[in-house]
Amino acid sequence: MILRFYRILSFAVIFLLAQVSLAQKSVSLEDVWQNYTFRQRSIQNLNWTQDGQHYTELKEGKIIKYSVVDPQKSEVLFDEEQYRVAGKKINVQAFSLSSDERKILISTESEQIYRRSSKENNFIFDRQNKSIIPLSKAGKQMHASFSPDGKKVAFVRENNLFLVDLVSGKEKAITTSGKFNHLIHGACDWVYEEEFSFAKAFQWSPDSKKIAYYTFDETKVPEYNMQMWGELYPKDYRFKYPKAGEANSIVTLSVYSLVNQKNIPIQVGKDKDQYIPRMKWTASSDWVSFIRLNRLQNHMEILHASAKDGSSKLIYEERSATSLEIESVGNDITYLADQKRFIFSSEKSGFKHLYLAEIATGKVEAISQGSWDVDDFYGYDEKSQTLYFNAASKSAIQREVYKIQLDGANLQMISQQAGTNTANFSPDFSFYMLYFSSAKEPLQISLKSSQGTLIRVLEENNKLKQQLKDYAISTREFFQIPLANGEKLNAYTIKPKNFDPNKKYPVLMHVYGGPGSQQVLDAYPVSNDFYWYQTLLDKGYLIYCVDNRGTGARGVDFKKITYQNLGKIEVQDQIYSAQYLAKLPYVDASRIGIWGWSYGGFMSSNCLMQGADVFKTAISVAPVTNWRFYDSIYTERYQRTPQENAKGYDENSPVNHVNKLKGNLLLVHGTGDDNVHFQNAVALQEALIKANKQFQSFYYPNKNHSIAGGNTRYHLYQMMTNFLLKNL
C-alpha cells in the first residue's frame, strides 16, 4: 500500500514537472538581440572613497555615496535632474571625486574613438557652492584626471596635454606640438592602446607638482586607410597602424614641473625600436618607474628615472626564450612605503606569481608559489603586511580571492563559493566588493570585510533569475578531452532540455583559442552568445567549446607551446576534439560545424580547411586571415617578425589552405574594422575565388570589430542561424 502511494506520488511529481516544462518559453532571437531580455545587472561606476568607509555609484542619473557599515546612511552628491548648463541637462556617463570630495568631475557626451579611448565634455561640480562649470570651452577632452590634491585637472585634447587650475580657472597647454597622425602627447597611439591595454598616457605625481607623460612620434608609422560609406563620395579615414615587421612609433617619456613650468626628458635608452608598456610614479615624487621592453618582447627591464634631471637606472630585468607578456610580467609593480622594496609579478617559475624585490641589492624572493597562476593582484596592506590577489589555484576554469603575508606565510582563500570570484578592495583594505558568478548563478556583488565576513549583498540579479524561470534554459556542463600525450583540454557542452542519448545530434563548436585566452570558465556568461545557443538547442543542435593548448591559467608551458606557430597546435587540438566528439554515440559525425570571431574566426576558417574531412560547416566572423596584416605588438609577441619567421606566418594562414576546402563557409566582416582590417576578408575571398571554391560572404558597412549598433547584431545572428539550418 505504501509502495503504491509513492508510485502515485512519483507520477504526480513527474506530471507537475512536465507541466512546468511545458509552461517555459523558448528563447528567441528577438529576446536576445532586440529586447535584451537576459541582460545581467552590475553596479555602474562603483568606486571607493578615500576613507575606505564609503563607496559611490551612479544610479539613474544620481551620484550616490553610501556608508559601508550603515546602508541607511546615503547621500546624493549630484542629481542630473537638478542642474542645467546653458539650459541643457547634464547626462552623467562617468564621474570621479577630488581627494577631499568637494568637487566632482563629471563626464558627458562621450564619443568612442577606439577600444579604450573616447573624448567627452567634462564639467566640474562644486559641492559647496552647488556650481557646475565646463572644464574647458575649447573642445572635448580625453582622460581628464584630478591631481591628488584635487586643485587641478589634466587632460588631452587634439594630441596635446593640458592643465586647468580649478582655483583660478586658467587653462594651460603643457605641450603644443601635437598633431594627428604625427605626434601624440599624453595619450596612446592605436597599437599601445589595443595591445598594452591602456589609453591614458600621463600620471600625476603624489605631491601634485609634476606630471609624467608619454610622447608618441608616429611620423614613420605606415597609415591604414578605411573608407567610410554613406555620403555621395566615401570619406577616407587614415590612421597610423604598424603591421607586423613595420615601423612603430618612437616613444619617449617626460616630466613636466608645475613649479618651474619646464619639461624634463627622461632617459629611456638609445634603442628607438623598443616599447615602454608601463610608467608610474614610485612611492616618492622624485622618481618615475617605467618598464622597457625590446621589440621581440623577450627582455624586460624595470628602471627608475629622476624627476629632477631625467637620468635613469636599471632596477630589475628578466629574459625569456619566448616572450614576456606585460599583463603577466611586471604589470603589478607596487612600491612599499619604505621606498626600498617593491612587489611585482613574473612567470619565471613557469607559473605567474608575486615577488618581492629589494631596490638596493636586487635581491628577489617569491611571495606566492605553486603550480597555479595568479590572475590579478589587488594590492598590499602596509598595516597588516598582507597582499590580496586573485588566482586559479583550485582549477583553471575557476577563480578565487586570496590573501598572503609579505613573507609568503599564511596563504588563505577568502572567497567561499566555487565559480569565478573577483574583488575590489577599499583603499585601506578594510572592506571589499566580491563579484561572484558561476555557470548556473548570475552575477552577485557582496560587500565584505577583509576577513570575509558578509556585510550585505549589493546586487543579486533577482530580476534576471525571475526571468530565467520563464524560459527553458540549458546550462553548461564541464568536462575534459584527453589528448594522446596525456594532457587534457577543458571543455563544456550545452544540451537541449529534452536531450535523448539514443538520438543523433548535429554539433556546433565555438572557438576562440588565442594565446592566454579562456572560453571554458565557470562563470555566468557575459556574452549573449549563450542565449543564441539556446535557440539552436531548440532546433536540435548540441553546443561544444574546447580550450586548446595555448590558452590561459595553466602555466607557461601550456600557454607558450604555440610560440612562432600560431594556428598550428590550436587547430590540431580543435580537429582532434571534433574527432573525439564524433565518436560519442549521440553525435552525428557527418554534421559537425565550428564558428568563431576574431582569433576564433582565424581558427574556424582554418579548421574547416585543414580539417576538411571532419568539419562540414564553419562561420568565420572578422577573422585574421594572415598575421602579416595584424599589428606589430600582438603578432610579434607570439610570432616574432615576418622577416625572422616567414614560415610561422604563412604555414597556418587560411589563405594558404583554400585548396583543401570541402565544406560550407560563411565569411563575415565589418568594413570599418580598425582592429582586424577588412583587408583580411578580402585576401581570403581573393584566394578562394582563385582556387574556384564556392563560399558565402557578407560585409557590414562602416561597422568596427564588434559589428554592433542598431539592428546589426540581430541581422547578423539571424543570418548565421539561417546559414546553419541550411548547411549543418
Automatic annotation (TrEMBL):
Q: Which residues form the signal peptide?
A: 1-23
Q: Which domain of life is it from?
A: Bacteria
Protein name, as recorded: S9 family peptidase
Per UniProt, residues of the Dipeptidylpeptidase IV N-terminal domain are: 98-442
InterPro entries attached here?
A: AB_hydrolase_fold, Peptidase_S9_cat, Peptidase_S9B_N, Serine_Prot_S9B/DPPIV
Matching Pfam families, A to Z?
Answer: DPPIV_N, Peptidase_S9
Segments forming domain Peptidase S9 prolyl oligopeptidase catalytic: 530-728
* Source species: Aquirufa aurantiipilula
Q: Does the keyword Lipoprotein apply?
A: no
For this UniProt record, give its keywords in alphabetical order, as a comma-separated list.
Signal
